[in-house]
C-alpha cells in the first residue's frame, strides 16, 4: 500500500500515484508500459494476474524495474505530514526523509520497555511512564540486593529470597566441585595408564638386558673352557718335549 494522499501538502502529479491503490507510490516499481506501482501492490496483483492493471499488457515480475530517476526525484521532493499528526506532531518534511523523522518522532506510540507491561505510550512521555509503571523493577529497599517489581512488593521476602539464592550458589558450587573432581580423576587415570605403559616397556628392556647378560656369561664360560683346554694341551706338549 502507498502513502495516504491526504497526508501530502499541495498538488501530487498523477504519475506519482500507484495504479492499483491510487495512493502515493511507496517503494515503487515500473512496468515496461511505464505504469508505476507500489512494490507490495504489484506483487500482490501478479499473484492472481499476469497483466498490467491499467492497460492489460502482459507483464511478469522479472520485467519490473525501478522508477525513472526524474520521477524518483519528484517523488522524494513531495512534502507530507508526519503520520503522528493526530497525536500532535506538526512536522512536515520531504518523502525522502519522512521515515527517518517518524523513527525518532516524539509523538510515536512505542511499547513500554518493562517486561509484562502492555502499555503503548508516546516516546516523549516514556520516561514519566517508566517512573510509575507497575512493572518497573528496583532494588529491594531492605538491602538484600534482590531486584523486585512494584507489583511483587507485597510478596517479597528478603530471608526467603536470600535462602533461595544461597541454595542456588550451593548447588552451583557442588556441581563445580564434582566437575573438578571428575577432571582430576580423569587426569590421574591417564597418568596411571601412562606409568603402567612405561613400566611395561622398562620391564621388557630389563628382561632383554638379562637375556643379553646371560648369553654373554655363557660365551665367557665357553671361552674360559677353550682357554683351559689350550693350556692343558700346551702343558702336555711341553711335557712330551722334555721327555724327548
UniProtKB/TrEMBL annotation:
Gene3D superfamilies: Zinc/RING finger domain, C3HC4 (zinc finger) (3.30.40.10). The keyword Zinc-finger applies. Residues 101-144 form the TRAF-type domain. Pfam families: zf-C3HC4_2, zf-TRAF. InterPro entries: Znf_RING (IPR001841), Znf_RING/FYVE/PHD (IPR013083), Znf_RING_CS (IPR017907), Znf_TRAF (IPR001293). Residues 18-56 form the RING-type domain. GO terms for biological process: regulation of canonical NF-kappaB signal transduction. This is RNF41 ligase. It comes from Formicarius rufipectus.
Amino acid at each position: 500500500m502507498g502513502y495516504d494522499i491526504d497526508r501530502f501538502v499541495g498538488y501530487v502529479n498523477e504519475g506519482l500515484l500507484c495504479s492499483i491503490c491510487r495512493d502515493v507510490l511507496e517503494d515503487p516499481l515500473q512496468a515496461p508500459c511505464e505504469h508505476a506501482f507500489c512494490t507490495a501492490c504489484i506483487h500482490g496483483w501478479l499473484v492472481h494476474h499476469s497483466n498490467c492493471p491499467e492497460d492489460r499488457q502482459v507483464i511478469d515480475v522479472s520485467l519490473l524495474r525501478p522508477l525513472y530517476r526524474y520521477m524518483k526525484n519528484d517523488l522524494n521532493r513531495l512534502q507530507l505530514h508526519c503520520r503522528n499528526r493526530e497525536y500532535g506532531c506538526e512536522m512536515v518534511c520531504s518523502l525522502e526523509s519522512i521515515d527517518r523523522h517518524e523513527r525518532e518522532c516524539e509523538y510515536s506510540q512505542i511499547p513500554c520497555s518493562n517486561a509484562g507491561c502492555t502499555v503503548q505510550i508516546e516516546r516523549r512521555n516514556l520516561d514519566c511512564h517508566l517512573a510509575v509503571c507497575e512493572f518497573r523493577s528496583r532494588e529491594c529497599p531492605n538491602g538484600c540486593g534482590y531486584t523486585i517489581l512494584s507489583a511483587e512488593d507485597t510478596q517479597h521476602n528478603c530471608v526467603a529470597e536470600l535462602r533461595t539464592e544461597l541454595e542456588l550458589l550451593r548447588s552451583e558450587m557442588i556441581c563445580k566441585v564434582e566437575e573438578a573432581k571428575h577432571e582430576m580423576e580423569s587426569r590421574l587415570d591417564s597418568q596411571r595408564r601412562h606409568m603402567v605403559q612405561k613400566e611395561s616397556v622398562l620391564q621388557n628392556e630389563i628382561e632383554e638386558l638379562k637375556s643379553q647378560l646371560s648369553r654373554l656369561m655363557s660365551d665367557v664360560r665357553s671361552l674360559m673352557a677353550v682357554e683351559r683346554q689350550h693350556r692343558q694341551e700346551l702343558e702336555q706338549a711341553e711335557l712330551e718335549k722334555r721327555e724327548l
